[in-house]
Amino acid sequence: MEYRFNEIEKKWQDQWKADKVYQVSNESAKPKYYVLDMFPYPSGAGLHVGHPLGYIASDIYSRYKRLKGFNVLHPMGFDSFGLPAEQYALETGQHPAETTKKNIATFKSQLDKIGFCYDWEREVQTSDPNYYQWTQWIFLQLFNSYFCNTEKKALPISQLIKKYETKGALPKTGEPIPGKHFTAEEWKAYSKQQQEEILMNRRLAFSKYGEVNWCEALGTVLANDEVVNGVSERGGHPVEKKKMRQWYLRITAYADRLLEGLETVEFSESMKEMQRNWIGKSQGAEMDFVIKGNDKKLRVYTTRPDTIFGVDFMVVAPEHELVAAITSAEQKEDIDKYLQYVKSRSERERLAEAKTITGCFTGAYAINPFDGKEIPIWISEYVLAGYGTGAIMAVPCGDQRDFAFAKHFNIPITNIIGDHYTGEEANATKEAILQNSGFLNGLLMKDAIGIAVDKIEELGIGTRKVNYRMRDAGFSRQRYWGEPFPIIWRDGIAIPLGAEELPLELPHVDKYGPGPEGEGPLANITEWVNTPAGRRETSTMPGYAGSSWYFLRYMDPHNGSTFCDRKASDYWNQVDLYIGGTEHAVGHLLYSRMWTKVLFDLGLIGFDEPFRKLVNQGMITGKSYFFNVVVTDDLADRKGGANKLGSFVKDSPSNVLRRFRFGHQYVDATGKLTENNLRKYNSEHPNDQVTDDIDWLNNGEENYIILKEESEKMSKTKFNVDNPDDLCEKYGADTFRMYEMFLGPVEASKPWDTKGIEGVHRFLRKLWRLFNDDLKGRVWTDEKPTDAELKILHRTIKKIEEDTEKFSFNTAVSAFMICINDLFDVKCHKKEVLEKILILMVPYAPHIAEELWHQLGNEGSILDATYPTFNPALLVESTKEYPISINGKVRANLSLALDLDQKQVEEIVLQHEVVQKWLEGKDPKKIIYVKNKMINVVV
RNA sequence: GCCCAUGUGGCGGAAUUGGUAGACGCAGCAGACUCAAAAUCUGCCAUUCGCAAGGGUGUGAAGGUUCGAUUCCUUUCGUGGGCACCA
Questions:
Q1: Is the pLDDT of residue A634 over 50?
Q2: Which residues have a Cβ under 8 Å from the Cβ of A548 and sit 6 or more positions away?
Q3: Which nucleotide is nearest, taking the CA of residue A739 and each C1'?
Q4: Mean pLDDT, chain A, whole residue set
Q5: Which nt has its C1' nearest the CA of A471?
Q6: What is the pLDDT of residues A128-159, one digit of tens each?
Q7: Per-residue pLDDT tens over the stretch A519-530
């Protein structure tokens, strides 16, 4: 009987489905374990071999935990709202709901072929009204909450209103500032609009006019992390700033808790570092400078108050509110000209020409409060309006940007760090002893920081201040295919829908193009937009809305009365293991952490970090073949216009290249592309004509060029994709699963190589032959295993268990191979050994394990078998084959009993002929004997 | 520029409280079985000197600590990823 994997896999997949073996209950006496994959966006391209890497890893771990006696939740679903489906709709007129449905069906059938143990009854789709009803509901919770700075947590906005009504909002110390502070009486006297405006400034989901990243080509607003180097991540279109009313999440309120929470979770160091970077906490001080001849004060933010005596000029952002007020009459013309120039520059130009130094003197001077020095105030675009106070004190001897600015405009530089400053460049050290620094003279800079702040606070001219680089997250998109906001606008007031009005379903539209004045497509449906209660919000939520809480819905997916029953979330609690790519380091992972914290604060769930442990799978790269042609066009202008085949890349600061890629069917193993194959390509792809203006080589028979090779992320446009379906068809799902694991560590990126899969397939066939002979049929027996055979078994149990626990699946696969090779060598076909090995294999190759399990005469599914226990007694050895080194180099081997002491070992070793030869009659200096490891003779 | 990873045969990779470098697999070479093929099996496979026995070199590079270093320390180079006027 031969190994007919296609039949076997089909048979058991059907059987498992019929028996609902993967159905998970929320009621169980077993301990729980929650394994989660980052759910996919169901793109039209389907799965390629890179996708399942993480899914296979999580599947192995889930099945392992199940065998170990856990009640394992291992669900799957689809992040089915998003731009690509809408882009596709724009191009083809197909409704996103239809394409999404089709794509999900493809994904599911592909996933099922690989044999994953998902409980599909718990599937979630973010674009399903039964799901997004609760996304909208959670949005309302965010809208109806504020962040209490005293308790450091979210509280219902009703509590804030009560506080305003009874106590107002008054400062703890000092005079109330009009517009910011008010008494209870004043509050009551405010109009509804005024009250709502004040409340809006505290809500966790709030709306305001803000500068947003507006992308003309996509007709929408993009989040900061969707903008890369001033162009959109998708499509590379230019992005500019535009003022629009937008929704935001007040994630900045949670900056500190997001930072602290990182200490309690198992994420990789680099992942934590990325998040810390993104949050960008910095400690410093804000201080006010008196402006000469003006009653206004200039407030700056600095992390280095110790350098206060090195301030040679001030720089404020061009957008700063004081600019007009402080500009002198003589400088007004220059300043206006500069402001005009700044306004004319797009975000992209500013970023691209970051090194160009520009600026303009305002004619005003600030006064250094400590030595009375007059400090000129400049404006420059290198100071950002959105960070700190939008103004800095420039210390050219300590900051390279300030230094460059001073040199460019010939501003004299004060040196406060002695020899540490060379005059050639700035030195940002904190280790120097301060000079020319008044009361700070003689202090080490890092000690002076605290002393300077104390002094500033004492004089009442400033305070300690923490700043964050992170901004509040933009939460609206001028798009169709997303969750509609449960908000109605009336008289400038945002009125939330009641929970009973949810879901607010996405209405059908005929056209997917943008609405008027930058609004989304929904604005075109007047009968939907205009309601008796007011006008509906026409933007939709961003892609990350649905994915910020999906892990909770899996726990209680069919609940019609709440997003997730508290009993269910208390039972399943945190995700124990989360597997996914690093690309979500600062997007999805931060947002879902924030949502979890809000839900926790509001008492809706019992934990405030969603993911206890995160494992990042690496990328499987495919090999691309390409050649480059230098083009003269400006990269930026052509980037968006590249056709499907040729893409533009920059291989040096000056060279813009057009890269032509080819699938491997046109290229031989050495990377050779012949002129004939190029012609063939061009005739098969009439829309993607490749230039034939090439310097051909000739080998006497035909023209050819050698293409460059590169391992790149798999993508249809790069012609380097392999499809898991084909491989499952050809080798079986078990082989495919084990091979993906065998490629290397889960976390590592590695190139895909289809050839290697043969080896894993051979191994499974060899396993099969331990049970069945192609000609003779059954060969397994009921005989008692020998000690040697048990040793092989228990060594394997130990190794597989250890490796699986630490996610070292590649070495586990190799341990299986070693085990089967060893059993073959000793011709072991004994049921007692073989069936234990089958159980070990269930997580890795469930189909073949189940089939052989039944061939051995077992009843019931192997999926619920008991994991074998390792018996250390079987592995105890009485002797050890020691390597004997002379001066650290191994020269011989010697088998010795383990219970010998140092003295006995020395005697035996010195008798050894190889040792004698190396000693050349002399006495050894020293003999090092490490029990059960090695022996080293020092000559 | 800053931060975080990472560097081992032709290839993917193994080896951790410092103790036999190259497990396992791919590719390659030689052979067995076969009319033949597939499948399977056996042997070789870092490099260099040598018929062999045996020796030299070798984990990006250079130093250091140690009886002993892929592993620890210092310097340096390459690759990948992240951040980047954040004061």
A1: no
A2: A588, A591, A592, A594, A595
A3: B25
A4: 86
A5: B86
A6: 999 999 999 999 999 999 999 999 999 999 99
A7: 888 999 999 999
> Could you tell me the distance in Å between the CA of residue A890 and the C1' of nucleotide B20?
7
Helix (H, G, I), strand (E, B) or coil at A323: helix
Domain A877-938 listed as CATH 3.40.190.10: no
Which nucleotide across the nucleic acid strands is nearest to A351, CA versus C1'? B85
Treating both helix axes as pointing N-terminal to C-terminal, what angle do A809-825 and A787-805 enclose, rounded to 10 degrees?
170
Q: Which CATH code for domain A740-874?
A: 1.10.730.10
Q: Tell which strand B nucleotides have any atom below 7 Å from a protein Cβ.
A: 3-5, 11-15, 19-21, 23-27, 39-42, 55-56, 67-69, 80-83, 85-87
Q: CA A388, C1' B86: Å apart? A: 8
Determine the Cα–Cα distance for residues A563 and A568; give it in Å rounded to an integer.
11
User: Using CA of residue A255, residue A260, residue A266, residue A271, what is the dihedral sign?
Assistant: positive
Q: Which nucleotide is nearest to A284 if distance is taken from CA to C1'?
A: B87
Query: d(Cα A829, Cα A244) in Å, to the nearest integer?
Result: 74
A281-468: CATH topology: Isoleucyl-tRNA Synthetase; domain 2 (3.90.740)
**Predicted pLDDT at A652:** 47
Q: Give distance CA A39 / C1' B9 (Å).
A: 39
Nearest residue: Cα versus C1' of B66: A888
User: Where are chain A's structural domains?
Assistant: 145-202, 281-468, 621-718, 740-874, 877-938
Nearest nt to the CA of A917 via C1' is B54
Question: Considering only A236-240, A400-404, A759-763, which range has the smallest mean pLDDT?
Answer: A236-240
Residue A301 above 50 pLDDT?
yes
**What residue type is assigned to position A14 of the chain?**
D
CA/C1' separation A528–B9 (Å): 68
